[in-house]
Design a protein that fits this description.
Blueprint (H helix, E strand, L loop, with lengths): L4 H14 L3 H5 L9 H21 L4 E5 L7 H7 L2 E6 L2 H11 L4 E5 L11 E7 L10 H11 E12 L19 E5 L5 E5 L5 H10 L3 E6 L4 E7 L1
Parallel strand pairs: 1-2, 1-4, 2-3, 4-5
Antiparallel strand pairs: 5-9, 6-7, 8-9
Length: about 230
């Protein structure tokens, strides 16, 4: 595995600095406002994925990897018995706590690439994280998911499709074969981060080859999502 530590450190720094403006992307504000029609399509697909998560019905004890500002933690907390929300940055965890304020949620600061899980869970959830896992760490990440789960435990994930209108208006979408990309903040600062767009059918095949019973689907234009178990 190539030494990607510097790139990953830059990625952590980027999301630390981006914490106060991260939700602009999700809610299509500022540089991410793509106009009424595109924004409406985005919000419809967000709702469709949220419904898929509700239908999946995460039960029992859930661990959320790269929990971020709580956009998905709030749903997990309402659906499951308990949630452990893990993220590398205290800045986003503070926003997560403020948004969720759930008695059944525990917040844990940890670098997922250097973390030994304290116990196993019934469900593993991660949103918009798999694209930030370098290809050389793909196998290790899915071993972590397996280590996190009880026998017959399940995972659910959400990710982004390679779509020009998903990113900010002043950023270009990188090529499909790219592994890293420059990302700009509102104040103009730039960071280099990992960004790997997964093709749904190929990703499903990769998971099946690794012993997962998995399904990977798309919401249409913007998102892919998947779920499965060993």
């Amino acid at each position: 595995m190539a030494d990607d530590s510097e790139l990953l450190q830059g990625q952590v720094a980027y999301y630390r600095a981006r914490a106060p403006e991260y939700d602009d992307w999700f809610f299509r504000r500022g540089r991410y406002d793509r106009g009424r029609d595109a924004n409406a399509r985005w919000l419809r697909e967000v709702g469709a994925v949220e419904q898929e998560l509700a239908d999946f019905a995460p039960l029992g004890e859930v661990v959320e990897l790269a929990a971020g500002t709580g956009l998905w933690t709030r749903w997990l907390a309402s659906l499951s018995t308990s949630v452990v929300a893990v993220d590398a940055n205290e800045e986003v965890l503070a926003l997560n706590r403020a948004r969720v304020n759930g008695a059944n949620v525990e917040w844990l600061r940890a670098d997922i690439f250097d973390w030994t899980p304290p116990r196993r869970f019934d469900e593993v959830f991660f949103a918009f994280w798999l694209s930030h896992v370098p290809p050389g760490r793909f196998e290790a990440f899915w071993r972590l998911v397996e280590d996190l789960l009880h026998p017959h435990g399940r995972f659910f994930f959400v990710g982004s499709l390679s779509t020009e209108t998903s990113t900010a208006t002043d950023q270009q979408l990188q090529g499909r074969d790219a592994v890293s990309v420059a990302r700009r903040l509102n104040d103009g600062r730039e960071f280099q981060i990992v960004k790997v767009f997964h093709e749904p059918s190929r990703l499903q095949r990769q998971l099946l080859e690794r012993g997962w019973q998995a399904q990977v689907k798309t919401s249409g234009e913007f998102f892919l999502y998947g779920h499965g178990q060993r």
